[in-house]
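Second attempt. The first submission of Rgg/GadR/MutR family transcriptional activator had a stray character pasted in from the spreadsheet, which I only caught after the job came back as garbage. Lesson logged: always re-copy from the clean sequence file. Corrected sequence (286 aa) follows.
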Amino acid sequence: MEQAQLIKKLRTERGYTQTQLCEGISSRTTLSSFENRGTELSSGILFQYLDRMNLRVEEYQLLLENHEVSPKRRLAAQFVKEYYTGAFSPTLKAEIWENYLNSHDFYYYILWFETKTILAYKNNYFDDKKYEKEINKICDYLFKVEVWQHFEMTTFMNLMFAFSDEMILALFDSSKETLTENATNPYYTSLVTTFFINGIILGFQRKNDHILSQFLTGLQAVAKKPKYMYAKMMALYFEKLLQARNATNPKDIDFTDFYAALELFGMSEKAQELKEFYEEIINENK
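This time the job returned cleanly.
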């Protein structure tokens, strides 16, 4: 569905005439031309239309994306599909790379890099030295963007495995202000929670307490909000895991009630995943 069609649909569903929606914002002709002929509309006017209809910009974007399959969404969907087959096809890699060369859109560069590395990491044969040039290019991009949003946070989160400890801490420090602001933004809460969890897991796996501390502090900040229950539960788990790792006898730290709570909420698979991660970290620490 095109933007013009979507705005008309949203307007009529909410009982606004063109005149009512435009009052104090634009002329009726501006809206009519947009709805009927798809003429250009400034973002400022569009945002005011949405505000009058009690719609957030991010809600509008989601509605628009649900009706349009962009090249990015199509390739991302194919990426996910092939990831779960255990191999990325040469066709997919070539199409992603061609899109990058034609558009210079860094999204395609990141997606291409993931096709080259993410399964290697999953299967324990990733060699960061082999991709030093590409990793430096990605880090340079992240450092240049002062205000991280969804793309930058997702890029860092998904490719953290490729970065050195020093680079992770430097990038984290450079983005700390934005991360703090987004931590309690409902639009970003799920992403930021996963972002911090991934960093904590990597900190445990690399036995780097500085990384662990930075990301755990971030997760604890999200967990302070009562409605963010998942963040609260995961923060509790990692706090207990840290205690167990540092204890003379890890079994003194009891996880029984925690796992039972996950089972109660129908999260048995998550409970099993966390039990396995506990065993991995405790066994490595022996």
